[in-house]
Amino acid sequence: MDSNQRRRSQRIYSPPPLATRAPLRSLGQVFRRPGLVNGGCSSPPATRHGNLGNNSRKQFFFEKKNQKTFTSKAHHWGDAGGARAYSASMKSPRPPSDPRAQVRAPRPPAPGGRPPQPSRHGAQHHGGATQTPSGAVWLYGLHPVAAALQNQQRRARRLVLTEEGEAALTARLPPPWAQSHERIERARLDQMLGRDAVHQGIALLADPLPPPPLTTVLERPGPLLVLDQVTDPRNVGAILRSAAAFGVAGVIVQDRHAPEETGAMAKAASGALESVPLIRAVNLSRTLVALKAAGLWTVGLAADAPALRGTALAERRVALVLGAEGAGLRRLTRDTCDELAGLAMPGTMESLNVSAAATVALYELTR
What does the domain layout of the chain look like in residue ranges? Predict the structure, then answer.
């Protein structure tokens, strides 16, 4: 073998030194197949000669079809991580991610960091009114506030008046008052109570009245009113106003299906919230049984019943039961009443608002 043949043999079969070996190229560069690189195997198997020949290329494509063979070869080639990535991608291909479906979880605060601060607009609700402090209610209007200031059971917190409101309250109820007042602008008061509140420049922040027990109410003279799931606070307030006008001893509502004491209720009651006891009963049917045991005659108001005659009930103490508008009395409440009665209406209207019906019925009972 001459020197030229010896040099050619060394160039073909002898590996180059490690220091001069070229860096490994990616599969896409070796085979011109970008899909193999995207599959997860980013580095080619290193051969003894540093390059893959035609036979090795055919062997690789054969091994690609056999996942187990490719994995074992990848471990032999020193690219186990690439083989695992390729194996995982062949088992469960990842669907294209939708950036709209990704929701970033809120980052927890750092230890010792400042807690998230509430928004400065968080103290307002619908209507532009400032949120009422917990356990208190805003009463507004001349008559509700004047009656609340005269009620010793009412605990006042804050009294705000405009210049015109102070003059009107002074004419209605001369000072000193149970609560010292603050001067306020009408725009600020509108913001506090809401634009829909007819406050007349007078507002009182106070605690709700504690409901009295039924035994205390039974000691008062006059009939009683029982409301079966009347949920509108303005209707309840109007009924309280009529109850005060006709000398009703108290109004009983269901605890779960009745409005809480609000400024709108007090405004519709026009001061009657301070003089007529409002009782909350958990079970209305049992309350009716207790009223019957105390000697009261329970009369349920129904549209399909005979007309109410006050003269026939002149010798009885009556508890008048009214249902919600539309639904009327519930079946159990209706069955618990001693009798049912309606209102004589010769006109074309078939029914009245519940507060108007209560007024007509109370007039018939007390005339």
Answer: 22-89, 128-206, 214-366
CA distances for 81 relative to 51, 75, 76, 95, angstroms: 21, 9, 12, 22
Output the CA–CA distances (angstroms, integers) from residue 346 to 258, 350, 354, in the order listed.
Answer: 32, 9, 18
- Burial (CB count <10 Å: 0-12, 13-18, 19+), residue 157: middle
CA-to-CA separations, 100 to 94, 107, 159, 252, in angstroms, rounded: 17, 19, 52, 54
Does the reported pTM lie above 0.90?
Answer: no
Peptide bond just before 259 cis, omega within 30 deg: no
**122-168, pLDDT tens digit by residue?**
333 334 455 667 789 999 999 999 999 999 999 999 999 999 999 99
* Predicted confidence (pLDDT) at residue 98 exceeds the cutoff of 90: no
The separation between the first and the last C-alpha atoms of the chain, rounded to the nearest angstrom, is 141
For residue 270, pLDDT over 70 is answered with yes
Residue 261 and residue 268: Cα distance in Å, rounded? 11
Single-letter residue type at 190: D
CATH architecture of 128-206: 2-Layer Sandwich (3.30)
pLDDT at 345: 87
The DSSP call for residue 114 is P
Same fold, 128-206 and 214-366: no
Element (H, E) at 280: strand 278-281
- Sheet with 339-341, edge to edge strand ranges: 278-281, 250-254, 224-228, 318-323, 297-301, 339-341
Average pLDDT over residues 180-207: 90
pLDDT at residue 2 in the model: 62
SS3 56: helix
| Domain 214-366 top-level CATH class | alpha beta
